[in-house]
Protein backbone atom coordinates (compact mmCIF):
# COMPACT_ATOMS: atom_id res chain seq x y z
CA UNK A 1 0.00 0.00 0.00
CA UNK A 2 1.17 3.48 -0.85
CA UNK A 3 2.00 6.21 1.70
CA UNK A 4 0.42 4.69 4.79
CA UNK A 5 0.23 7.40 7.45
CA UNK A 6 0.16 6.95 11.21
CA UNK A 7 -1.44 8.96 13.99
CA UNK A 8 -0.17 8.86 17.55
CA UNK A 9 -2.53 7.82 20.35
CA UNK A 10 -0.54 10.00 22.73
CA UNK A 11 0.85 6.90 24.45
CA UNK A 12 4.19 5.54 23.18
CA UNK A 13 3.30 2.18 24.69
CA UNK A 14 0.06 1.92 22.74
CA UNK A 15 1.65 3.27 19.56
CA UNK A 16 4.34 0.58 19.74
CA UNK A 17 1.74 -2.10 20.34
CA UNK A 18 -0.03 -1.24 17.09
CA UNK A 19 3.06 -0.63 15.01
CA UNK A 20 3.53 3.10 15.43
CA UNK A 21 0.08 4.65 15.77
CA UNK A 22 -3.26 4.15 14.07
CA UNK A 23 -2.94 3.61 10.33
CA UNK A 24 -4.49 5.27 7.32
CA UNK A 25 -6.17 2.96 4.79
CA UNK A 26 -7.22 0.82 7.72
CA UNK A 27 -10.03 0.48 10.21
CA UNK A 28 -9.00 0.39 13.86
CA UNK A 29 -11.59 -0.71 16.38
CA UNK A 30 -11.30 -0.22 20.13
CA UNK A 31 -13.70 -2.13 22.30
CA UNK A 32 -14.21 -2.32 26.01
CA UNK A 33 -16.66 -1.70 28.78
CA UNK A 34 -18.11 1.67 29.79
CA UNK A 35 -15.40 4.01 31.06
CA UNK A 36 -12.51 2.03 29.62
CA UNK A 37 -11.22 5.05 27.69
CA UNK A 38 -12.69 4.65 24.19
CA UNK A 39 -14.03 8.21 23.93
CA UNK A 40 -10.90 9.61 25.52
CA UNK A 41 -8.68 8.03 22.86
CA UNK A 42 -11.10 9.35 20.22
CA UNK A 43 -10.71 12.90 21.52
CA UNK A 44 -6.93 12.50 21.68
CA UNK A 45 -6.70 11.30 18.05
CA UNK A 46 -8.98 14.13 16.88
CA UNK A 47 -6.25 16.49 18.08
CA UNK A 48 -3.08 14.51 17.32
CA UNK A 49 -4.07 14.00 13.65
CA UNK A 50 -3.60 17.77 13.34
CA UNK A 51 0.03 17.69 14.51
CA UNK A 52 2.96 17.77 12.11
CA UNK A 53 4.38 14.41 11.02
CA UNK A 54 7.44 14.62 13.25
CA UNK A 55 5.10 14.83 16.24
CA UNK A 56 2.95 11.90 15.22
CA UNK A 57 0.23 13.66 13.24
CA UNK A 58 -0.75 14.05 9.60
CA UNK A 59 -1.43 17.80 9.54
CA UNK A 60 -4.98 16.84 8.80
CA UNK A 61 -8.56 17.33 9.86
CA UNK A 62 -10.98 14.94 11.47
CA UNK A 63 -14.61 13.90 11.08
CA UNK A 64 -16.13 12.85 14.40
CA UNK A 65 -19.38 10.92 14.02
CA UNK A 66 -20.94 11.18 17.45
CA UNK A 67 -23.79 8.76 18.11
CA UNK A 68 -24.19 9.09 21.88
CA UNK A 69 -23.39 12.74 22.49
CA UNK A 70 -19.99 11.93 23.90
CA UNK A 71 -18.10 14.68 22.07
CA UNK A 72 -16.82 17.33 24.52
CA UNK A 73 -15.28 20.51 23.05
CA UNK A 74 -13.78 21.42 26.44
CA UNK A 75 -11.90 18.11 26.41
CA UNK A 76 -10.48 18.99 22.99
CA UNK A 77 -9.36 22.32 24.43
CA UNK A 78 -7.47 20.60 27.25
CA UNK A 79 -5.74 18.21 24.84
CA UNK A 80 -4.97 21.04 22.40
CA UNK A 81 -3.39 23.01 25.26
CA UNK A 82 -1.25 20.01 26.14
CA UNK A 83 -0.19 19.63 22.49
CA UNK A 84 0.56 23.33 22.23
CA UNK A 85 -1.93 24.05 19.47
CA UNK A 86 -4.56 26.78 19.37
CA UNK A 87 -7.89 25.72 20.90
CA UNK A 88 -10.11 27.39 18.33
CA UNK A 89 -8.11 26.08 15.41
CA UNK A 90 -8.12 22.60 16.91
CA UNK A 91 -11.92 22.67 17.21
CA UNK A 92 -12.35 24.05 13.70
CA UNK A 93 -10.45 21.11 12.28
CA UNK A 94 -12.85 18.65 13.90
CA UNK A 95 -16.05 18.24 11.91
CA UNK A 96 -18.73 16.98 14.25
CA UNK A 97 -21.55 14.91 12.80
CA UNK A 98 -24.24 13.99 15.32
CA UNK A 99 -26.00 10.85 14.18
CA UNK A 100 -29.57 10.54 15.44
CA UNK A 101 -30.16 6.99 14.30
CA UNK A 102 -28.40 4.26 12.34
CA UNK A 103 -29.66 5.42 8.91
CA UNK A 104 -28.46 8.91 9.68
CA UNK A 105 -25.13 7.47 10.80
CA UNK A 106 -24.77 5.56 7.51
CA UNK A 107 -25.61 8.71 5.55
CA UNK A 108 -23.13 10.82 7.51
CA UNK A 109 -20.32 8.42 6.65
CA UNK A 110 -21.24 8.44 2.97
CA UNK A 111 -21.29 12.26 2.96
CA UNK A 112 -17.62 12.38 4.00
CA UNK A 113 -16.78 11.85 0.32
CA UNK A 114 -18.36 15.22 -0.48
CA UNK A 115 -16.54 16.97 2.35
CA UNK A 116 -13.20 15.67 1.10
CA UNK A 117 -14.05 16.51 -2.52
CA UNK A 118 -14.85 20.07 -1.42
CA UNK A 119 -11.20 20.37 -0.37
CA UNK A 120 -11.18 19.54 3.35
CA UNK A 121 -8.02 17.60 4.23
CA UNK A 122 -9.69 14.83 6.24
CA UNK A 123 -7.16 12.25 7.44
CA UNK A 124 -9.16 10.67 10.27
CA UNK A 125 -12.76 9.52 10.66
CA UNK A 126 -13.96 8.59 14.14
CA UNK A 127 -17.22 6.80 14.87
CA UNK A 128 -17.99 6.92 18.60
CA UNK A 129 -19.79 4.62 19.09
CA UNK A 130 -20.27 2.35 16.11
CA UNK A 131 -22.94 -0.02 17.38
CA UNK A 132 -25.10 2.02 19.79
CA UNK A 133 -27.88 2.88 17.33
CA UNK A 134 -27.72 -0.46 15.55
CA UNK A 135 -28.08 -2.30 18.85
CA UNK A 136 -30.97 -0.16 20.01
CA UNK A 137 -32.88 -0.31 16.73
CA UNK A 138 -32.43 -3.91 15.67
CA UNK A 139 -33.56 -5.94 18.63
CA UNK A 140 -34.22 -9.66 18.55
CA UNK A 141 -33.12 -12.56 16.41
CA UNK A 142 -35.40 -11.80 13.47
CA UNK A 143 -33.75 -8.42 12.88
CA UNK A 144 -30.18 -9.64 13.18
CA UNK A 145 -29.70 -10.29 9.45
CA UNK A 146 -30.94 -6.79 8.55
CA UNK A 147 -28.72 -5.24 11.19
CA UNK A 148 -25.65 -7.03 9.88
CA UNK A 149 -26.49 -6.06 6.31
CA UNK A 150 -26.80 -2.37 7.27
CA UNK A 151 -23.66 -2.53 9.37
CA UNK A 152 -21.84 -4.13 6.46
CA UNK A 153 -22.94 -1.29 4.17
CA UNK A 154 -21.69 1.24 6.73
CA UNK A 155 -18.32 -0.45 7.16
CA UNK A 156 -17.84 -0.76 3.40
CA UNK A 157 -18.43 2.98 3.03
CA UNK A 158 -15.88 3.67 5.76
CA UNK A 159 -13.33 1.29 4.22
CA UNK A 160 -13.86 2.92 0.82
CA UNK A 161 -13.11 6.37 2.30
CA UNK A 162 -10.04 4.97 4.06
CA UNK A 163 -8.68 3.49 0.82
CA UNK A 164 -9.67 6.21 -1.62
CA UNK A 165 -8.45 9.19 0.39
CA UNK A 166 -5.71 7.63 2.55
CA UNK A 167 -7.74 8.20 5.72
CA UNK A 168 -7.58 6.42 9.10
CA UNK A 169 -10.89 5.10 10.44
CA UNK A 170 -11.26 4.71 14.20
CA UNK A 171 -14.31 2.95 15.66
CA UNK A 172 -15.36 2.51 19.26
CA UNK A 173 -17.52 -0.35 20.39
CA UNK A 174 -18.92 -0.83 23.87
CA UNK A 175 -19.01 -4.37 25.22
CA UNK A 176 -20.05 -5.83 28.53
CA UNK A 177 -17.39 -6.76 31.01
CA UNK A 178 -17.11 -10.53 31.27
CA UNK A 179 -15.41 -12.58 33.94
CA UNK A 180 -13.15 -14.20 31.35
CA UNK A 181 -12.40 -10.89 29.67
CA UNK A 182 -8.97 -10.88 27.97
CA UNK A 183 -8.71 -14.64 27.87
CA UNK A 184 -11.86 -15.71 26.08
CA UNK A 185 -12.55 -15.19 22.41
CA UNK A 186 -13.29 -11.49 21.90
CA UNK A 187 -14.97 -12.06 18.55
CA UNK A 188 -17.92 -13.70 20.28
CA UNK A 189 -18.51 -10.67 22.43
CA UNK A 190 -19.18 -8.04 19.82
CA UNK A 191 -20.85 -6.92 16.63
CA UNK A 192 -20.83 -10.35 15.03
CA UNK A 193 -18.81 -11.47 12.06
CA UNK A 194 -19.17 -8.41 9.86
CA UNK A 195 -17.21 -6.23 12.21
CA UNK A 196 -14.67 -8.94 12.90
CA UNK A 197 -13.70 -9.02 9.23
CA UNK A 198 -13.79 -5.32 8.53
CA UNK A 199 -11.45 -4.11 11.28
CA UNK A 200 -7.80 -4.34 10.46
CA UNK A 201 -6.74 -3.61 14.02
CA UNK A 202 -8.78 -4.48 17.07
CA UNK A 203 -7.80 -3.22 20.49
CA UNK A 204 -9.37 -4.38 23.71
CA UNK A 205 -9.37 -1.77 26.48
CA UNK A 206 -9.58 -2.67 30.14
CA UNK A 207 -9.41 -0.74 33.37
CA UNK A 208 -6.35 -1.54 35.45
CA UNK A 209 -5.26 -0.61 38.93
CA UNK A 210 -4.66 2.98 40.10
CA UNK A 211 -6.35 4.64 37.14
CA UNK A 212 -4.24 2.72 34.63
CA UNK A 213 -5.72 1.34 31.43
CA UNK A 214 -4.61 -1.72 29.53
CA UNK A 215 -4.79 -2.03 25.75
CA UNK A 216 -4.57 -5.46 24.21
CA UNK A 217 -4.13 -6.00 20.49
CA UNK A 218 -6.23 -8.92 19.27
CA UNK A 219 -6.64 -10.74 15.93
CA UNK A 220 -3.94 -8.77 14.18
CA UNK A 221 -2.80 -10.39 10.91
CA UNK A 222 0.79 -9.18 11.01
CA UNK A 223 1.58 -7.92 14.52
CA UNK A 224 2.15 -10.02 17.63
CA UNK A 225 -0.58 -10.01 20.26
CA UNK A 226 0.46 -8.01 23.28
CA UNK A 227 -0.53 -5.48 25.86
CA UNK A 228 0.31 -1.86 26.62
CA UNK A 229 -0.41 0.24 29.69
CA UNK A 230 -1.59 3.85 29.40
CA UNK A 231 -3.29 6.53 31.47
CA UNK A 232 -6.02 9.09 30.91
CA UNK A 233 -4.99 12.46 32.35
CA UNK A 234 -6.11 16.09 32.01
CA UNK A 235 -3.52 16.41 29.25
CA UNK A 236 -5.00 13.45 27.41
CA UNK A 237 -3.64 9.95 26.81
CA UNK A 238 -0.13 9.28 28.17
CA UNK A 239 2.03 6.28 29.06
P1 LIG B 1 -15.68 4.96 27.31
O1 LIG B 1 -14.81 3.76 27.12
O2 LIG B 1 -16.99 4.62 27.94
O3 LIG B 1 -15.78 5.81 26.08
P2 LIG B 1 -14.27 7.22 28.35
O4 LIG B 1 -13.29 7.29 27.24
O5 LIG B 1 -15.35 8.23 28.39
O6 LIG B 1 -14.90 5.78 28.43
O7 LIG B 1 -13.42 7.26 29.70
C1 LIG B 1 -13.93 7.84 30.84
C2 LIG B 1 -12.83 7.87 31.86
O8 LIG B 1 -11.77 8.69 31.40
C3 LIG B 1 -13.27 8.48 33.15
O9 LIG B 1 -13.80 7.50 33.99
C4 LIG B 1 -11.97 9.04 33.71
O10 LIG B 1 -11.28 8.01 34.38
C5 LIG B 1 -11.17 9.37 32.47
N1 LIG B 1 -11.19 10.81 32.19
C6 LIG B 1 -12.08 11.49 31.46
N2 LIG B 1 -11.78 12.80 31.43
C7 LIG B 1 -10.67 12.95 32.15
C8 LIG B 1 -9.85 14.06 32.51
N3 LIG B 1 -10.12 15.30 32.10
N4 LIG B 1 -8.78 13.83 33.29
C9 LIG B 1 -8.49 12.60 33.68
N5 LIG B 1 -9.21 11.51 33.41
C10 LIG B 1 -10.29 11.67 32.64
From TrEMBL:
- Residues forming the RecA family profile domain are 3-175, 180-239
Q: Tell me the Gene Ontology biological-process terms attached to this UniProt entry.
A: DNA recombination; DNA repair
Whether DNA damage counts among this entry's keywords is: yes
* Binding of ATP, residues: 32-39
Q: Which UniProt keywords apply?
A: ATP-binding, DNA damage, DNA recombination, DNA-binding, Nucleotide-binding
In terms of superkingdom, the source organism counts as Archaea
Molecular function via GO: ATP binding; ATP-dependent DNA damage sensor activity; damaged DNA binding
Record bears the keyword NADP: no
State the family named in the UniProt similarity comment for this chain.
Answer: Belongs to the eukaryotic RecA-like protein family.
Role this protein plays: Involved in DNA repair and in homologous recombination. Binds and assemble on single-stranded DNA to form a nucleoprotein filament. Hydrolyzes ATP in a ssDNA-dependent manner and promotes DNA strand exchange between homologous DNA molecules.
What's the protein name? DNA repair and recombination protein RadA
What species does this protein belong to? Methanobrevibacter ruminantium (strain ATCC 35063 / DSM 1093 / JCM 13430 / OCM 146 / M1)
Amino acid sequence: RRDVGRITTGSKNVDELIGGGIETQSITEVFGEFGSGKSQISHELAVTVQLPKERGGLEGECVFIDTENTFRPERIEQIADACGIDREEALQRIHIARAFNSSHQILMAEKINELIQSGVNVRLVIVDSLMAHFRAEYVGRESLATRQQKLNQHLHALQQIANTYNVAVFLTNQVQARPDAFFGSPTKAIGGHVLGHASTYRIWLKKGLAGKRIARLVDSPHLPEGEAVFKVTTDGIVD
